Amino acid sequence: MYGIFLTLPDAVLVIGALSSEATESILEVAQATSTEAPITTPSPREPAPDISSTVPPTSQIEPDLSPTPVPSPVPPPGMVRVEGGGFLVGSDLLGASRPPSPQHYEQITTFWINENEITNGEYEKCVLANACSPPSKTSSARQSEYFGNDTFSNHPVVWISFKQASDYCKWIGGNLPAEEQWERVARGREANTYPWGNSEPKIDSANFAIPSLLNDVKAIDSFPKDRSPDEVINMAGNVSEWTRSWFVSYEGNLEPFDYTNALRVVRGANFQTDPETNYIKSFFRRGYDPEYGYLTIGFRCVWTP
Q: Are 146 and 120 in contact (CB under 8 A)?
């Protein structure tokens, strides 16, 4: 029996994963069907060979039943875990014909998402590795030399098309988020209106269009209050973000629409968004042409094991 374990190591692993009753059944079949090398009967003139010194007794051979270790997949650096489960998506507050309506229940699996928006410095590494193409423009709202300038390496990359964003996420082993994933992170399980809760935004809540400020993209750590329940930053302001979802109405919307193959969903407000409008609410959704990069749109990635 133990000789079978040595010559059929794959069988050992399978047996180790079965119940004790199934294992005994398989061993009985293995014993009944195994073939042994034929024993030659020595002639009277030839003494039988002594093999006791070369073949150890089978009782001394112990099978290795330990499972083969499988490396655990690891998310890319800078990501946080978001627990799967059910949550509410959308809102009926703006009317039954608006894109966020109707509010409904979604179920997702656990995933990981970038804590911050992808920065100029991170995206530049992908460009230097010839895995990504440069942004369509290297300026920002108030900086003529923005991308490629070390001063702004910790700022979100902009002027990135949907494909460019998707290429980067694939380069690090991930993907762009589905809009349901994005909304789950921005609103938490409680379906908050904003990442920080349901209180109205203040001047320091996020990087919005504040008339008294020189509005532009800011460093990713500039607004610590713009933080979701899962500790993900800048989902209300700074830059809006690409998702991989097509802009299609939710089932039950009173004015259904379908922009499949035309517009991708973009989520979140940005530094040009008036904080008194509905655009800053985390359930708001809108569609953009994925062929182009935009001054106000960046992205972050997700990873699923």
A: yes
